[in-house]
Amino acid sequence: MQQVRDGDTSKLAVLFDRHHRQLFHFFYRLTNHQDQSEDLVQDVFFRMLKSRETYQAKTTFAAWMYQVARSAHVDSFRRRKNETQWSETQPEPVNREPHVDERMRKRQEVELLQKAMAALPEDKREVLVLSRYQNLKYHEIGEILGCEVGAVKLRVYRAVRALTQIFQEMSGERVS
């Protein structure tokens, strides 16, 4: 990214090749819309090119990229506020278990978990996607969200608790 910032914009293609799948999965987990996620990935790389001079080498590239991605998502969310709905259809998880009952139970749990994720407030879903699905370190999430590591840990903890509660309520389990 430093080379892109210094004027070698052809290096953005290398960054795209390395990071577009990761960004797509980030957006897909937030929006559950393939087309919207693909559009957001393109928007992020356009924004990165446009604001390349804001990149600082002291910040990890991933943290800077997710800050740009987060901004693109927020802008997109505002534009599509009334149109965006979580899709009920999900790709089926790959499952190699031999028993049909077990496969069906696991599929139902995955679907229920996806619905629970959709029911989370946007900020809680975002922090879970960054920490659990994108496997970012807490200090990187802190850079993205503009807060300290302790605050990130607390947000993740609260998001996991909220997700657990929603999941249990949806599954009919007793909430403790």
Please estimate the helix content: 55-70%
By DSSP, the count of extended strands is 0
Largest sheet: none
Distance between the termini: 47 Å
Overall body shape: globular
- CATH top level of the largest domain is Mainly Alpha
In terms of DSSP E residues, the strand content is under 5%
Low-confidence stretches: 84-88
Please state the CA-atom Rg, rounded to the nearest Å.
18 Å
Count of spatially separate domains: 2
Mean pLDDT: 83
CATH architectural name of the largest domain: Orthogonal Bundle
Instruction: Please report the number of helical segments.
Output: 8
Structural class: mainly alpha
CATH topology of the largest domain: Rna Polymerase Sigma Factor, Chain: A
Q: Write the CATH homologous superfamily of the largest domain.
A: RNA polymerase sigma factor, region 2, helix turn helix motif
List the helices and strands and how they pair.
Layout: H1 2-5, H2 12-31, H3 34-50, H4 61-79, H5 100-119, H6 122-133, H7 138-145, H8 149-171
Provide an overview of this structure:
By secondary structure, this protein is an all-alpha fold. The protein folds into 2 domains: 1-80, Orthogonal Bundle (Rna Polymerase Sigma Factor, Chain: A); 101-176, Winged helix-like DNA-binding domain superfamily/Winged helix DNA-binding domain (Arc Repressor Mutant, subunit A), CATH 1.10.10.10. The chain is 70% helix and 0% strand. The chain has helices spanning 2-5, 12-31, 34-50, 61-79, 100-119, 122-133, 138-145, 149-171. The longest helix has 23 residues, at 149-171. It is globular, with a radius of gyration of 18 Å. The model is unreliable at 84-88 (pLDDT under 50).
